[in-house]
Amino acid sequence: SAQIDIGNGSTLTPLALEVTAQLAKVSLQRLSQGDVAIEKASAILRLAQEESPQQEQFIRIQGPVDLTGFVLSHGPEKKILLGCYRATAKIAEGSRLVPFDVRVPNVALEYIYAQGMRTPVGQFQLFIPPTQGQEPVPVSPDSVSSSAATPPTSIPAAEPQPAVQIVNPESSTTIPPEAPPTAPPGGLAIRIERLSIIGGELYFEDRTVTPTQTVYWQDVRVNVNTFSYPLVFPATFSASAYNEDGAPVEFQGTTEQKGTQTVMWVHGNIQKLSLSRFNSYLEPSLGYRVKKGKVTATWDLVLPGGRIQANMKVTLHNIGLGGKRNESQ
Predict the structure, then answer these.
(1) Cα–Cα distance, 280 to 116 (Å, whole number)
(2) How far apart are CA 252 and CA 238, in angstroms?
(3) Checking phi first, is residue 293 left (phi over 0); if not, alpha (psi -120 to 50) or beta?
(4) Residue 231, Cβ neighbours under 10 Å: how many?
(5) Distance between CA atoms of 289 and 279, rounded to whole angstroms?
(6) Which of 227, 248, 287, 318 gives the lowest tally of CB atoms within 10 Å of its CB?
(7) How many CA atoms lie within 13 A of 244 on its CB side?
(8) Could you read off the pLDDT of 72-129 as tens digits, one per residue?
(9) CA atoms of 245 and 243, how far apart (whole Å)
């Protein structure tokens, strides 16, 4: 269903509209990525046609947008690929619809759920097709816990002291200060001053290794400042989450465009992550399975183009190795 109200004083020539729109139970089917369903969407928008001193015609747009219950699903079983309980944004004054140049001070996404995979040939995609004897974790946006819920961060008492410490001797990488923003080039452009994700879940499968490596993060929180397309503004970001074992993961950084090259600085840390979950990656390098043990890591990365410069400190806790995968333990 849909309801559209046009405010008093609105005109079509010249275009000057104040539109209040409310949509409910919206469904778009057979899209390339799947079916889209939206429980409710509303917006209060002002549109106005104007002319620049150079006699160029453009359409201004501004106003708040609110969306509830977004779900992207796939197949007859309606497998959820992407979900969002609520999304809110406000298009700032001075934004243009034609040509498209939009400024949004704040975008908030609440209780996101997403799943993705890396195919056996190394490609990343959103949809995870089920394999024989293996199904993705049955999680939906409705199962996301409240942001007030206490995440499982407790660490068992009386653990042994770290057995090994590895410190990369390279000098630390410092995140440069944010530079003043510059104006985007002409054409399609969008700038978001702040993007936040509150209470999300992420499920991922890497099928380039055997057995398939799975990653599940919960209570995902993300903040991105000064994000834009095209990428001409320095952007800062931070994120935190907890994995299946309750190990906290945090990172923050800055992305900047230098000429034709995108440079990213990232600082992060993870506390007492169980290593046995990652035997698909570890066994080919070590020659043995990890039976028990955890890792604490802190890192600084610089990614200029296709190169990676790293400074990392790794602490191993109570490590125990077993036999190879095909041998008895």
Answers:
(1) 18
(2) 4
(3) left
(4) 13
(5) 6
(6) 287
(7) 12
(8) 988 777 888 899 999 999 999 999 988 889 999 999 999 999 988 899 998 888 766 5
(9) 5
Q: Which of 87, 80, 67 is nearest to 34 (CA)?
A: 80
CB 138 within 8 A of CB 130: no
The model carries a pTM of 0.73
CA distance 23 to 43: 9
Name the nearest CA neighbour of 93 among 83, 85, 103, 108: 103
Q: What ranges make up the beta strands (E) of the chain?
A: 2-6, 16-31, 34-51, 57-74, 79-91, 96-98, 101-104, 107-118, 124-125, 164-167, 189-206, 213-229, 235-242, 248-258, 261-274, 290-304, 309-321
Alpha-carbon distance of 161 to 78, in angstroms, equals: 48
Alpha helices by DSSP H, 30-141: none
Encode pLDDT of 293-304 as tens digits. Answer: 999 999 999 987
- For residues 277 and 244, the answer to whether their CB atoms sit within 8 Å is yes
- What pairs with residue 319 in β-bridges? none
Instruction: Give dist(CA 29, CA 22) in Å, integer.
Output: 20
Residue 315 Cα distances to 101, 168, 180, 250, 275, angstroms: 48, 12, 38, 16, 12
CA end-to-end span of the chain, whole Å? 61
Q: What is the DSSP letter of 281?
A: H
| Closest by Cα among 267, 264, 247 to 312 | 267
